[in-house]
Description:
Blueprint: H1 2-54, H2 58-72, H3 79-92, H4 97-121, H5 134-151, H6 156-191, H7 195-236, H8 262-297, H9 320-336, E1 341-348, E2 352-359, H10 365-369, H11 372-379, E3 385-387, E4 396-401, E5 408-409, H12 410-414, H13 417-420, E6 427-433, E7 438-442, E8 449-452, H14 459-473, E9 479-484, H15 508-532, H16 537-546, E10 555-560, H17 563-584, E11 590-596, H18 606-611, E12 614-617, H19 623-630, E13 643-647, E14 655-661, H20 664-677, H21 684-699, H22 708-718, H23 723-730, H24 734-746, H25 765-788
Parallel strand pairs: 5-14, 8-11, 8-12, 9-10, 10-11
Antiparallel strand pairs: 1-2, 2-4, 3-4, 6-7, 6-14, 12-13, 13-14
Helix pairs in contact: 1-2, 1-3, 2-5, 2-6, 3-4, 4-6, 5-6, 7-8, 9-11, 15-16, 15-17, 15-21, 23-24
GO biological process, one term: cell division
Protein name: DNA translocase FtsK
Organism: Anaerotalea alkaliphila
Amino acid sequence: MPRRSADKKSNRSNTRRRRTASSKKPLKENMLLYEAVVMFFFASSLILIVSIYGNAGGFIGSGLRSLAFGLLGAGAYGLPLLLFIGAFFKIFNKGNVELNVKIILGFFLVVLASTAAHVWLIKTPQISGRFGESQAFFAVLVHYYKTSSRFHVAGGFVGGLLGDVFVLLLGKLGSYIVLFFLAALNVVVLTEKSFLRLLEKVKDALWTWFDLWRAQREKAKAERAATALEEMRAAAEPVPDALPPSVSPPADVPPAPVQEAVPDVVVQEKAAAKGASRQEILVEKDLEAAMERSMEERDFSPPPLSLLKENPFGGRGADKKGIEQNRNILERTLESFGVRAKVVDVSSGPAVTRYELQPDIGVKVSKIVNLSDDLALNLAAAGIRIEAPIPGKSAIGIEVPNKEVHSVFLREVLDTEEFRRFPGKLAFAVGKDISGKTMVADIGKMPHLLVAGATGSGKSVCINTLIASILYKSDPKEVKFLMIDPKVVELSVYNGIPHLLIPVVTDPKKAAGALRWAVQEMDERYQLFAEKNVRDLQGYNGALAAEGETKPLPQIVVIVDELADLMMVASNEVEEAIIRLAQKARAAGIHLIIATQRPSVDVITGLIKANVPSRIAFSVSSGVDSRTILDMNGAEKLLGKGDMLFYPSGYPKPVRVQGAFVSDQEVSAIVDYYKESQQSAYNEKLIQHLNRGAEEASEQPSDQDTLFDEALELCMEQEKASASMIQRKFRVGYNRAARIVDQLHDAGFIGPDEGSKPRRLLLDRASYLEKKRSLQEGADREGETETTDRPPQEQPSSENQEVRP
Length: 805
């Protein structure tokens, strides 16, 4: 028995070897046959090239040349090139069915060229009326063959036949139109490039040229206006009277002594200089007013798109082969774990491809979610993200990173119909989603945005993209920026653009004052709305336009680039201002953009999260940070470099987007364009207000709280002092309120602690007012003393002035 089993095994192995050897032999023969056919076409194409273009193919080459021109006419010039390119690609693409189809389409393009050449040369079709006469019909085609074979023109046998049919059916003009669109369709299929996209690029190039021409015209107009103003200034200067010709006295007569009239001359010169200076001042004021009017009346011209870089990867499509492989791997891996599911759709974006899985009935979603690490292992991916389920679909999304991540450039987002036709002035070019669709958001509808993520994940680029999008969309009269940059180097490049209310605030002490000013501006705007009986900024500007007012109230975008630094300096004031703005500023046209690289609960507090509904999360290190930003996991699975989760107000779930990229050079080009075309008009009152606040904060003793005086006033009004009262009144924490109470005690205004009772005042109301009045009078007397102690200025004495007749 053992011997028989061993014989059976050896027989099976021998049979298997014979089958393998027999199967390898036809495979090798097929490979050799394929190479022989390809080399034959390659050699034929070279012979046709030297025969058709050089007439150096000998007897056989001459025959092939006559045959090619006789059949295809002028289209024969493209036949050898088609064969050469097809044979070259067939060498490296065996079994590629798409290549065979493209070679056939290339031959069809050659036939279309022959047909067009025939339609171009003939006046009337020769086969008209000869369809029933076979001999006459064939004689016409033979004539076409001989003529094209001899003179290498027209369309030959094939082109003549098709050309006459086209002209009979459509006429010459109709034939041109149909042949053109057939050729265009053929080229689109061959190159896999969109013809409409090509036309759109041509249109965009024309618009860019027009924008540059208009900008140059505006610049020339501004230069002419400046030249005219200089001429006005030169004309306004006093011209000295012409001096009489000097007459020399005779040589023998001594010159008479000239009486000195220096004072008269000096007085006249001073009067003339004073009059000239007054006239120059008036002229300067007129010139400044004229310049301001010309700047206000100038039409808004956005920067040309040529300032931005084109995307070099814009024409690349999806990796179809890799997508098909991943689809099979997903289905097989899930099946190996007992999960039956099918990939029903695939969406490929710039950085991530999403595979939509539809599980069988009875399969739990959690079972697929728990297999994320196993799926990533089998796909050889750095990490995958599972969206279960996809909003609005009965499918589960598995997001797999692409092998090649293609950046999304800002220009390709701005250069779309979605951005051009966007109705709002606060359009934000976000980027492209997983399916490659352009994402454009409206800051006005968000109405406030929180941007957070780890260092280097793309926050600063996102802020620059947001600002650049608004600069391309809005007029400086309609949108203003208030930028706060404690890091100093991120937003300072925007200094000088006309959209800024004030220069970029980099001092944290001034930043809190700038936010308080925004709160004050919000309150003042609501008072204006109440006077006009309107509810929001749009209604107020409409009421102003109805009254003939041409200067609208602008929208204000407040950008805080690093919230963590401000929270370390003045957390209570900053948080209070942000919360008030987030709660009420939308209708007033004021919008907050807050960015931070430390998404912790002490920076992004619960009150800030509750009042800032829209968020953008970039890559973070842990799920805790992701939950702090989005209230859910997911941001820890992002790839970085612009990969974000965009969660605007009203969306059921975050959307994964590859953010638009704008470089520092492009930002500088946009800023330089605005600096050259328009002047910045800062709010001087706001600048002075912030400077005074910073000086007062620096002059104040470091050990005394900023609310010390106000807390003392409150205690005098209430005739008692307690930490809880100060805490309720000024909305501060208990620690700060207790510290203020201790400072009041140390200053001698209130008594010691008496347990649960409020502290008693050591001064009554009358004594406090008298002491305050005496302190004020003392300060006034000190100011008067400083004025009187100042040495008097030397006055010109009348004795020193000699007035002579």
